Write the structure tokens for this entry.
Amino acid sequence: MHAADLATARHLLRPRRLVVPHLAEAEALIDHLMLPGAGENVYKEPAEPNIVTWGVPGEPGTWSNQSQCASFVTAVLRRAYPSWARSKHFSQYFGSPSPFARDYQRVFADGGTPRMKPVRRVADLRPGDLIAIDYANAQDTNTGHVVMVRRLRGVYTAPSNGLNFDGEIQYAVQVADCTAEPHGLAGVGSYEDYPDTRIVGERQLQGVGYGHMMFYAAELTGEFTRYRWSVNTSSTGVFPVEERPVSAVRVSAG
């Protein structure tokens, strides 16, 4: 087994924690879709329907995913909380039964919803929290990115000074998400310590999986200041919140 594969396997081990219903549903789907014989796992095109199927436990061929980042999160919430995560809820608070990443970020920044309360400080992130990014690109699709926190890995200091900023703290965050571009490049920098399950050997897969993103916080307030896509994203891929707003919430089950 390659070293990168060993690193990936190591980080698939779940830390001890309280069960968060929507994260548990996301993990069940992702874990089944990584098994041999699993169903389709793709990042859908804009015109394609959103289809996320939770199948029979232990039968990976009955599970499948065809979604984008935001529609994956919406599907997980609908699955975990059928009593409130309905079309009416999303339409009322997000303006659409299937919000885009931009919609999620806007609502998170404006105070969330009765079921979603803001998390302002990066250090306060917990498993299951949602982080939304608005690319501020005025596009109808690919409006940003939404992830589910799986684990706050802790403070990270990059070997390149151009990736560390005065007055800011960088955090490595393991996430569960759906993307066409996995988080990182195998064999580059510290990737083996912060891998993505969709990078298998020299292949880069798409769909749902686990990866790592880097989020920065102001030392004084702890609030989001910038982010980058992966541990080996260069300085040209570091986006301050003034260019791409970032907001997070904690979902209430009840």
Residues 3-251 form one domain. The longest helix spans residues 21-33. Residues 1-14 have pLDDT under 50 and may be disordered.
